[in-house]
Amino acid sequence: MIGASREALVAGRQNLESLTDSTSVDAAKLAEELTAVTAVLDREVSLRRVLTDPSRSGQDKAQLVTSLLTGQVSGEAVDLVSGLVRSRWSGSRDLVDATEELAAYAEIIAADKAGALDDVEDELFRFGRVVSGSHELRAALTEPKAGAVAKAGLIGKLLGGRANAGTVRLVTALVNVPRGRSLEQGLESYSKLAAARRGRVVALVTTAVPLSDTQKERLSGALARMYGRQVHLNIDVDPEVVGGVRVQIGDEIINGTVSSRLEGARQSLEG
After folding, report:
1. Is the pLDDT confidence value at 253 over 70?
2. pTM for this structure?
């Protein structure tokens, strides 16, 4: 997403954060409502074109949203979507993408307010690793002919009773309506939203042996000093990793090709 659409999304996220700062707003319910709005916008091509038509005034489009959604969703959801359509968009599908992202972000906010964001981040990461390691499971979750009920049932068997309810809702939404994304891409986008909520970055750390809690704290601190921000660690164990540790943040990989930074990371593990 670029240009006007990117600016509109940033404004929408700020509006969502302001709304959910109130303790009276149920962020999880808001996430569910925004997911429903996303489905409507994704299905109704003519509607989203009207709502992103630059020749129509923002107020006119906001009034249309109000007339369509009032009584169907909460006032907070109406306000958020009305704010989105007042903005300018580079393309009509960007409005759908933004509404979907705000739905996921509302779920992240709900987890954060409940003190469960760390758990949700870790569960999403672990679920992604389980899916990546099982061709059969991945096929079952991505089979277009499989119904939403069947997929939800499978997710319930995998995560029900073992994962946070927010994790289950996020995974279910992604599996049922991938909108052109792979499972891995969708889960990574959730990870980035969680990191954004905390004002930190996410590091994928691969080590030859499991890390102790003390080593995790040292490594996180060393990376935070490198990047000037808090760093959340998603950790994998691979006995064959070169040098004993490999760190990936975004597109940057810290390994033997960046020896000085790798040495700093390794020393943090050794104390």
Report:
1. yes
2. 0.77
